[in-house]
């Protein structure tokens, strides 16, 4: 009897927590949420919910059946989560408002811990998911799409500010200002996302330390990824494809230190990696193919190691704007290398100078690009390779590979 | 070689030295001269035209202020926070507000206004001090 009483008392709270409430478009969701107990599950019937500024103040699970649609009518925010351990799944959020002072979001998380937003659709939102001062939250499997017009007041797909330990995984994001934006976010992971056709960057870091992004695809953005004023970033196995235009890069590194860029693919970008004021970055095992410039390393960078990469079909392999060279290039494969390998150990016997005379000239006088691939400049390039006078002669790969790395 | 370089320089010089005026910023295309980010937010954009007529564009007023090259004798323009960016303001005569809630691209968070009346609404609601070009942080 006593045993049974204990068992019952143990089971009762669990049973109470498992209440499932089903609701539909005609009933105000806010009321349902407010009367629910923490831990309840709310099931949303399909339909169009003309409801907005719905505040979630308790740990609840909200599951949409066949993607019920929440419409902000281009004037409002939709969900605001102020509790921890909230889970939202399988809903559509569309048409949030725009405002110059308030960043209007589809789902906003404020001071939340351990919340999950998964398998939702965000259509034409200003900001889709906006995380403020939140930790251990998971944003996964969402489809986020906005319009890519010249609407420049648009917001970011996933926007995180002052957060820690986030997981952003498996989302598809397009048409926003930045696909994913991190400002003061630490210890977080960005995995397997596809960020494409965003106006500015696929992914943007500002002052966000010790984060990792891996297995993502950044395609057709204004620029692929911008990592700025940050340290300890791991960039691993991402694809940077066709980020093309004037101020366009695969990766823009500005004031970055102690980071790793390995096993990525840079294909058809105006500039594969642009580096300025960046130190102690290890760049290895990457493939740079068919880019305008594979790398532009400004003279303000030092103690970077570039090794074991493949450079294929780039118009220019490396460009720099100074004569000082404090970075190390070793053991890379350069398809423009025309040296020899007499002992056949796979390493060329004469150094390779990845900076061509022409890239130095065009760095100083951009208009000189008009003469690219003319007969005269080819001769000048060849002459310069024999006796370097203008190109920085310390910038060389002493052990260039003669065979492509199998990456 | 020298002649080639010289003539190219001359060509480049000729195209830029003629008219010294605000050059419209192509949003979403032009890069900030200081931080290299794509300029996208009209509310915070700014521009320097130096004495030789060379144009430097910025995505944040703090980027312009951090960009020290050749500022003396330059024309400095800032976009008005409330306008759409077609008519830039003279940086010296504009008034400014500074507050974290503006969230400018480089976190400089400085906004420009044509005059005291334009700034008044925001100034009162955020309880800020009105700044001038000289007193900017």
Q: What can you tell me about this protein's structure?
A:
The complex is a heterodimer of chains A (407) and B (137). Chain A is built from four helices and 38 strands. Chain A has 407 residues and is mainly beta. Chain A has a 25-stranded parallel β-sheet that branches. Chain B is α+β, with helices and mostly antiparallel strands and 137 residues long. Helix content of chain B is 24%, strand content 18%. Chain B has helices at residues 2-17, 61-66, 116-126, and strands at 46-49, 55-58, 75-78, 89-90, 95-98, 110-113, 131-132. In chain B, strand 1 (46-49) and strand 2 (55-58) form a beta hairpin. Chain B is globular and about 40 Å long. Chain B starts with a helix and ends in a 5-residue tail after the last strand. At the A-B interface, strand 25 of A face helix 1 of B.
Q: Which tags fit this structure?
A:
heterodimer; A: 407 residues; 38 strands; 40% strand; B: 137 residues; alpha+beta; 4-stranded antiparallel sheet; 7 strands
Strand content of chain A: 35-45%
Q: Helical amount among residues of chain B, as a percent range?
A: 10-25%
The geometry of chain B reads as globular
Low-confidence stretches of chain B: 9-14
Structural class of the helices, strands and pairings of chain A? mainly beta
Q: Span between N and C termini of chain B?
A: 47 Å
Give me the number of helical elements of chain A.
4
For the secondary structure, the number of strands of chain B is 7
Note the quaternary state here: heterodimer
H and E string of chain B: HEEHEEEEHE
Helix content of chain A: 10-25%
Distance between the termini of chain A: 68 Å
**Mean of residue pLDDT of chain A?**
89
Strand order of the largest sheet of chain B: 2-1-3-4
Q: How large is the radius of gyration of chain B? A: 16 Å
Largest two-chain interface = A-B, 31 and 24 residues
